[in-house]
Amino acid sequence: AWVSVDKQCHLHYEIVVAGLSKKEDVTVNAHLHGLAEIGELDNSSTTHKRLLTGFYGSQAQGILKDLSLELLQHLDQGTAFIQVSTKLNPQGEIRGRVHVPNSCESGAGAEVEEAELDDTLLTDPEELKKDPNTCFFENQHHAHGSRWTPNYDKCFTCSCQKRTVICDPVICPVLTCSRTIQPEDKCCPICDEKREPKDMKAGEKVEEHPEGCYSEGDQKMHAPGISWHPFVPPFGYIKCAVCTCKGSSGEVHCEKVT
């Protein structure tokens, strides 16, 4: 684990794990699924833990902005720990002490946080009164956890994670059809149904559900029969899964890529 505290008292971390427990079925657990947490060394209490991130794979990295002064003091004194939990050991499987000297308990970082907030409050005070985690992007406020397509490029999806905007380029799934077309309003090419004899029923499907399927992940409509990679904030697009819009029912069907 690599951990650092910057001048704004934001915690930067990068964690790489190996050799943690997996279930017998290696195919299902090819990627490690776990949680990384930071807390204070006090065995009597497990409540003083903060989630750093949930991860799928062997790495976890990110920035934690709203750390309590208490936890920053523990980091300064060397009485903090980073803990990794897995599905098999949800209470924690591996833990290490962390010592990151910092001067945040003196309140140096608190002033910076307030100054940042004041700048944004001037833009739209009502919106930020409701939620301090709002993101401001392209002259618009976005709620924490929301997703949208940015104005600068329709082939991106952005999400707001506690005042931080993360934008990911859309990943197009590989098509198996012989002929493809590129719709003007879409980022990804689709199969040319007119030239594909096996897609004769597509017309009937469209009549039943002309609007297609709504995907909660990227918060977009997808036409019947279209496939896409799911968008999972804050990780972005997941290449290891493909979702398809079932035109007859309007349902989204997702499965792992073999």
UniProtKB/TrEMBL annotation:
Q: Identify the residues that the record assigns to the CHRD domain, covering every copy.
A: 1-103
Record Pfam families: CHRD (PF07452), VWC (PF00093)
SUPFAM superfamilies associated with the record = FnI-like domain (SSF57603)
The GO cellular component terms are:
extracellular space
**Gene3D superfamilies referenced in this protein's UniProt entry, alphabetically:** 6.20.200.20
Q: Name one GO biological process term.
A: negative regulation of BMP signaling pathway
An annotated Gene Ontology molecular function: BMP binding
Q: Which PROSITE patterns match?
A: CHRD, VWFC_1, VWFC_2
**Keyword Amino-acid biosynthesis set for record:** no
Domain VWFC residues, every copy = 133-192
The alphabetized UniProt keywords are: Developmental protein
Name of the protein this chain belongs to: Chordin
What's the source species for this entry? Austrofundulus limnaeus
Q: Lineage of this protein's species?
A: Eukaryota, Metazoa, Chordata, Craniata, Vertebrata
